[in-house]
């Protein structure tokens, strides 16, 4: 009897492998787990974009829950996300910091914000990806949630929509604020 | 013949085509060699199966420049790699390190090969008496 069962061993092994690989198949290889989660905001310091007074550095993350949003005027998804960020600003839900990533021309970022509105309370200029690399960014838009102690709590890849706001971001923010 | 020579030449020369811009290259060639070696081991996170040394992606280019800047600032090779890993995780290493989570990755193939060998040995062990039986039978038939 045991011998008979042994014949099925390869089949069982195959089934295990198949299950393992098919689980991996559904995962998007572009979404990576951030190693920054539950770590302090990485050290970085960015100058202001043209026409603005203040830049952005890791010292700006203290005593408040904030979002950091990586954007660029060249980024189509950022344009899609933009109205939602404006709404957050209008309602005063949470301060949003911006990292203006890889503008070809120094005026592109400021012009984009002038045209569509500026949802950011602080913006750093990041033509050489120093800020983006500090945050382990792979594409724009990307958004990080940082808590009162300057610890990164959540990473969101792609545009923020009403749905993923309701599902993940808002609950996480509420939880942090109520601590 | 001409075609063959052309093909071979092209295949060989493809090695020398790189994404690295002349402007990125460091003046000190010993430092540049170190930068190249590091870049070859770092994955481009945009086009995930290329190293940043091979990739034309803008983020890869910025990473290459970052690697070079860090080297110029006096960072050791390991310090440069550690910095990038601290931001992007082990995933950026094209040679994943041996540790808990990558154990199966590194030793799985060896273990599976060993299991295969054990199965083979068991199989032939079992065959031996059968073959001897056969031989005996044959000998008896001949008698």
Q: What does this 3D model show about the protein?
A:
The complex is a heterodimer of chains A (179) and B (143). With 179 residues, chain A is of the alpha/beta class. Chain A has a single domain, classed as Glutaredoxin. Helix content of chain A is 38%, strand content 18%. Chain A is built from six helices and seven strands. In chain A, the strands form two sheets. In chain A, strands 5-4-3-6-7 form a five-stranded mixed beta sheet. Chain B is an all-alpha fold and 143 residues long. Helices cover 64% and strands 0% of the residues of chain B. Chain B is built from five helices and no strands. The longest helix of chain B has 40 residues. Chain B is elongated, with a radius of gyration of 27 Å. The mean pLDDT of chain B is 86. The chains are: A alpha/beta (179), B mainly alpha (143). Chains A and B meet through helix 5 of A and helix 3 and helix 4 of B.
What is the structural class of chain B?
mainly alpha
DSSP summary, beta strand count of chain A: 7
Sequence stretches where pLDDT stays below 50 over 5 or more residues of chain B: none
CATH architecture of chain A: 3-Layer(aba) Sandwich
Order of helices and strands of chain B: HHHHH
Count of helical regions of chain A: 6
Proportion of strand residues of chain A? 15-25%
The largest sheet of chain B is: none
Mean pLDDT of chain B, rounded to whole units? 86
Mean pLDDT of chain A, rounded to whole units? Answer: 92
Main pleated sheet of chain A: 5 strands, mixed
Strand-residue fraction of chain B?
under 5%
Please give the alpha-carbon distance between the first and last residues of chain A.
60 Å
């Amino acid at each position: 009897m045991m011998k008979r069962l042994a014949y099925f061993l390869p089949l069982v092994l195959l089934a295990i492998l198949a299950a393992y690989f098919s689980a991996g198949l559904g995962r998007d290889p572009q979404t990576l787990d951030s190693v920054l989660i539950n770590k302090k905001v990485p050290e970085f310091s960015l100058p202001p974009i043209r026409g603005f007074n203040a830049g952005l550095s890791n010292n700006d993350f203290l005593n408040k829950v904030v979002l950091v949003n990586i954007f660029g005027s060249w980024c189509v998804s950022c344009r899609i996300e933009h109205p939602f960020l404006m709404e957050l600003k209008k309602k005063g839900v949470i301060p949003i910091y911006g990292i203006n990533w890889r503008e070809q021309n120094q005026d592109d970022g400021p012009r984009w914000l002038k045209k569509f509105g500026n949802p950011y309370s602080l913006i750093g200029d990041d033509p050489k990806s120093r800020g983006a690399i500090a945050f382990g960014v792979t594409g724009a838009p990307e958004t990080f949630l940082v808590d009162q102690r300057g610890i990164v709590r959540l990473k969101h890849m792609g545009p923020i929509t009403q749905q993923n706001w309701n599902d993940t971001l808002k609950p996480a923010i509420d939880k942090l604020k109520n601590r | 013949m001409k075609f063959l020579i052309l093909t071979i030449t092209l295949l060989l020369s493809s090695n020398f085509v790189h994404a690295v811009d002349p402007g990125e290259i460091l003046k000190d060639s010993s430092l540049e060699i170190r930068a190249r070696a590091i870049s070859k081991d770092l994955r481009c996170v945009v086009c995930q199966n290329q190293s940043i040394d091979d990739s034309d992606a803008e983020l890869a280019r910025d990473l290459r420049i970052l690697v070079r800047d860090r080297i110029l600032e006096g960072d050791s090779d390991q310090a440069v790699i550690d910095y990038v890993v601290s931001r992007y995780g082990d995933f950026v290493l094209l040679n994943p390190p041996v540790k808990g989570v990558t154990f199966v990755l590194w030793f799985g193939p060896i273990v599976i090969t060993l299991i295969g060998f054990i199965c083979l040995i068991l199989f032939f062990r079992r065959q031996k008496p059968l073959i001897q039986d056969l031989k005996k039978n044959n000998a008896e038939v001949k008698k």
